[in-house]
Write a structure and sequence with these properties.
CATH architecture of the largest domain: 3-Layer(aba) Sandwich
CATH class of the largest domain: Alpha Beta
Number of strands: 11
Structural class: alpha+beta
CATH topology of the largest domain: Protein Transport Mog1p, Chain A
Shape: globular
Order of helices and strands: HHEEEEEEHEEEEHE
Helix content: 25-40%
Number of helices: 4
Length: about 240
């Protein structure tokens, strides 16, 4: 029995070779398809991730009512932070005598301050300082009457009233009742600033008349000597 040989040219051998090659090509094509599918999936995931990051909703800033109220209401300025503090009356200030039309009293005030006269009162102002003299008919004041009557009236007429003390003091015109307190100033018409004012109210009395000398300026200003000059200069003329 003779031997049989297959050659590449034989039909069976050629068919076998073609089948093997086709299987290899199909396997390679499947692998390529899977790689393309994986790559496409990665690109889609990256695109979704980028789209999610870029389309995130913008953050909303929430402001509490307390913060809004604090921003709306100006806080009092600290007078002592400036040098010299606002309202500090210079030591070189010249004081001049003032007498009302009634010639009832005399008082010395800083020269050049603006003056406003109203029935029974006069107001001197310069920047953040003021001196007011008011004359009314009243009984002789005492520290007790000041605490019982004047303090409640003052508290109701100013903002953030804080009593510092009530005492009887001696001046050139005699004994006076002194009420010391602090209160917020009116907002500055130009800057809008609000200061904490230190206020000294002196009550002088003679023959049924009470002269109220009120000195006001920013807390922290060194006005001890000027205020002493004003109150020591007050005197009754009749």
């Amino acid at each position: 029995m003779g031997k049989s040989y297959f050659t590449l040219r034989s039909g069976a051998a050629y068919q076998l070779f073609y089948s093997v090659a086709a299987m290899k090509n199909a396997s390679a094509l499947g692998m390529a398809r899977r790689l393309l599918l994986l790559a496409g999936t990665g690109l889609i995931a990256a695109g979704c991730s980028g789209s999610t990051g870029s389309s995130a909703a913008p953050q909303t800033r929430i402001t509490s009512p307390a913060a809004s109220a604090s921003a709306a209401s100006p806080a009092p300025a600290a007078a002592a932070t400036e040098s010299p503090p606002p309202g500090d009356i210079p030591d070189t200030t010249v004081f001049v005598a003032y007498r009302p039309a009634s010639d009832q009293y005399e008082v010395k005030v800083p020269e050049g301050w603006a003056r406003t006269v109203t029935p029974g009162a006069v107001l001197f102002t310069d920047k953040l300082n003021s001196v007011t003299v008011t004359v009314i008919k009243a009984a002789a004041p005492t520290p007790a009457s000041a605490r019982a009557t004047e303090v409640p009236q003052i508290r109701g007429s100013v903002r953030h009233f804080a009593l510092a003390g009530i005492s009887a003091v001696s001046r050139s015109a005699g004994t006076a009742v002194l009420i010391r307190y602090s209160a917020y100033s009116q907002p500055d018409p130009v800057t809008g600033k609000v200061y904490v004012n230190a206020v000294e109210r002196y009550e002088f009395y003679q023959n049924g008349a009470e002269a109220i000398v009120t000195l006001s300026g920013p807390a922290g200003a060194d006005n001890v000597d000027p205020w002493r000059k004003v109150t020591d200069s007050f005197r009754w003329l009749r």
